[in-house]
Amino acid sequence: MIVIGSGAKHLEEEIRRLGGRVLDVEIRKFPDGEKYVRVLGEGKEALVVQSTFAPQDERIVEALILGDALREKGFKKLRLVVPYLAYSRQDRVTKDGEPISIRAVMRALGLYYDELYVFDLHNPETLRFFPGKALNLSPARAIAEYFGEKLGDGVVLAPDRGALERAKAVAERLGLEYSHFEKRRISPTEIQMRPVDVDVAGRNVLIVDDIISTGGTMIKAANLLREMGARRIFVAATHGVFAEGAIERVSKAVDELAVTNSIPTPVSKISLVPDILSL
Amino acid sequence: MIVIGSGAKHLEEEIRRLGGRVLDVEIRKFPDGEKYVRVLGEGKEALVVQSTFAPQDERIVEALILGDALREKGFKKLRLVVPYLAYSRQDRVTKDGEPISIRAVMRALGLYYDELYVFDLHNPETLRFFPGKALNLSPARAIAEYFGEKLGDGVVLAPDRGALERAKAVAERLGLEYSHFEKRRISPTEIQMRPVDVDVAGRNVLIVDDIISTGGTMIKAANLLREMGARRIFVAATHGVFAEGAIERVSKAVDELAVTNSIPTPVSKISLVPDILSL
Prior knowledge:
The structure is a homodimer.
Chain A: E1 2-4, H1 12-17, E2 22-23, E3 25-29, E4 35-39, E5 45-49, H2 56-72, E6 77-82, H3 101-109, E7 115-119, E8 133-137, H4 140-151, E9 155-158, H5 164-174, E10 177-187, E11 190-195, E12 205-212, H6 216-227, E13 233-240, H7 246-253, E14 256-259, H8 273-277
Parallel strand pairs in A: 1-2, 1-5, 5-6, 6-7, 7-8, 9-10, 9-12, 12-13, 13-14
Antiparallel strand pairs in A: 3-4, 10-11
Helix pairs in contact in A: 4-5, 6-7
Subcellular location (chains A, B): Cytoplasm
Domain Phosphoribosyltransferase (chains A, B): 141-239
Organism (chains A, B): Pyrococcus yayanosii (strain CH1 / JCM 16557)
């Protein structure tokens, strides 16, 4: 049985269409701002789907009280899928006195859920903070499926070396070449990006990253590829945490921008629902 | 050392003025809506003050990441004062399928805090959900101090029998008489309220409750007291969870309305800070 939180409302239609059995829940807010949830059905095991984009704290607390309602109702095994997990970038102490906020979130979710599934977590090592079984799922199937035909015999690029595994996973599903950009300081004030060991002239290119926020790197990379003679330039990311105006800016610089539906945005055209339903 | 969360910012000036040693913290939001906190000081024990009025979920999550930052910084003992605890009225399953939301909140706070202090909790039995030591503090000192002189030799009333202990605690501090209202069905559609075993004619009256939201009960009680010849009518409550327009409506019906500063409102004239500093 699938339970759909307010942060997964945008996935409900597709989940139902693809045959997911959805357990009805009532989710609303009291006039004072407190969330109210109620589980309208029975069962022993549930897969709760709740993405935690803004207002992220509301969705985190909602996941907790949904878990409480399900336990109270007698559910024995609760699994939680969080397509986009808030606070995942607050994964280490950079300045003295900072929290590891993702640890607090993981621990709180662990109070009610036996298993946690996330997509393309910023730092997969932080899964250890979740007390139960925790898995980081790949967006590769979804991205490869969406861009496969458009790419043809193109090339898949990561914006930096750290993102290479993601690009590689997409490329290998499509039997395509892959590589990454590297940054080189060409003067005290200027850093140049260039794709490593790959010829892009006359070829379609897909750049794949985990999160797009301002989109600055993507635009820089796309402009460079254009100069190098690339044919069509596509940009994909798992999580579209777009800053104001970023969708428009990136869209203008490339042939197509698409992100997964971990967060609902106007360009969330890549669906993770089949991956969720296979859990 | 006292740590002041965003839900206790309105208490900071008084906490400092009354000699509280405040540990500096940085609390802000990232553009995507995630909270960021940073502890700017050292210590082994801290008393975190965080009231959880709206946006309540943000303040709950903030309390967790503040706790995480303090633990990471080496604090050994963390106590948490929550003057107004959100979700405290979601304390039981009224309809099948509901959560006990306050349990989820208590358990989450218990991940980081050794002790929990709240004021005038809706259902003190729910303190058992907090894994550590948990105490329900009385607003009686604060309310008695604020209204003592104004009341003179008046009487303290509870709006119903269930609220009698609170009225009694205030009255006993002032050496005054106390009683409560009772509701009596006088026709199939009409319920009459009346104060039990007390003569209010010519006397000042203070009605004390835990929460005022719409204020309907208070207004009804005040109008009745007026008819019965009461002199000055005061209304006090611990938590001013006012619905739209309620402050104005209640204020118009009584001589003075005042609530504690567990939630900052235009009538939060009764301070809990001395009680907090005595912890």
